[in-house]
Amino acid sequence: MDTSDIAIVGAGHGGAQCAMALRQNGFAGTITVIGREPDYPYERPPLSKDYFARDKSFERILIRPPAFWAEKSIAFRLGTEVTGVDAQARTLTLSNGQSHGYGRLVWATGGDPRRLSCPGSDLAGVHSVRTRQDCDRLMAQVDAGIKTVVVIGGGYIGLEAAAVLSKAGLHVTLLEALPRVLARVAGDDLSAFYQAEHRAHGVVLRTNTTVDRLEGKDGNVIGVRLGDGALLPAQAVIVGIGIIPSVGPLIAAGARGANGVEVDDHCRTSLPDIFAIGDCAAFACAFAGGAVMRVESVQNANDMASCVAKTICGDPQPYRAFPWFWSNQYDLKLQTAGINLGHDRSVVRGDPASRSFSVAYLKDGRLLALDCVNSVKDYVQGRKLIEAGAMPDLDRLADASLALKEV
Ligand SMILES: Cc1cc2nc3c(=O)[nH]c(=O)nc-3n(C[C@H](O)[C@H](O)[C@H](O)COP(=O)(O)OP(=O)(O)OC[C@H]3O[C@@H](n4cnc5c(N)ncnc54)[C@H](O)[C@@H]3O)c2cc1C
Predict the structure, then answer these.
(1) Nearest-CA residue for atom 15 of ligand 1
(2) Which one of 78, 95, 296, 331 is least enclosed by Cβ atoms within 10 Å?
């Protein structure tokens, strides 16, 4: 049986950053990263942005070139899934039937795309966008000359994919079950803005629209049957309806959690010497009033990874990293600072028609979060205000002629 001082399960953003941060913090023991995908760690955000649009090659989205990992003596077992954890014996069961022993374990497995539960969801031509392989399959269909795509789900990934495909000249319909896109992450003003942008770029956007089933012919998807009985023709369907955290083996081993594995403020699970980070970890978020939640972002995966590395290297510091996020659609760069959970008021700064504006979210007068569209200055200054717990005057906040630092 192979063993390593540290085993990291998941070769994505969090896993890669944890291995790097351990070496940066002087960890001299053995490190093995075990990853289900065949590739070395790569950036996931470009899968619905510049990699999907072919503005970046796969080599350019690798987090580090393969030689880097060898130089740092970080071993990889790729194409290998961890199917079981024995927290007492400190061993992992691998999909190839072998075992791997560990001293300390970092669980960094992200999540699997939520699948449609309706008939037809397993037809060829139905895609998720989570891995490079998902994206390549979809791009191969685009290369083959398909013209009509239906995107199910109006979250960031669905909207970004719709933007790339409509720019490439495909006929795109986007379906959202709720009354507006981005309903779970943004306020009405931002949703209305993005809906108008997508429609102006030719996307047919339908809210309040449910899917009854996917229709197929010879095993390939040919259309989406809506709840009202209408049939939308589709040569490909993209499903972007969220993820389910990949925590099965850890929960089966006794770790506390359900929608993600629960961690304390040093990213420790309830099992001895087992940490969890990134999309799969649920923690009490200091920037959301202490609500226990999972945060799906590169920032969160990287910063939790660094927190664990410091703890392992004897310099424990509680996880309090400031949350931020971004999304690129068309020529619009959205930057989000903070988490707007529980806001009781939102204030728009600037005119959305100018395509450069911000939305501020407040609770009990305190600034919680900002969505900044093509507005880097607001983002940079606003995050300082949020971190400082600012309670801005609302009229001044709404006055875009005043810099945020003066509000
Ligand atoms: C298309 C797309 C666009 C995105 N855009 C943005 C963006 O603009 N900004 C942003 O901040 N975030 C974005 N995100 C989210 C961001 O990519 C994730 O939050 C981040 O990747 C989380 O890192 P992670 O390490 O937790 O998980 P991941 O990066 O998903 O890595 C987890 C890895 O673990 C592997 N794995 C799972 N189970 C096992 C197992 N049992 N054994 C071995 N390996 C396993 C998985 O296959 C995967 O390779 C986007 C995500 C996607 C999919």
Answers:
(1) 297
(2) 331
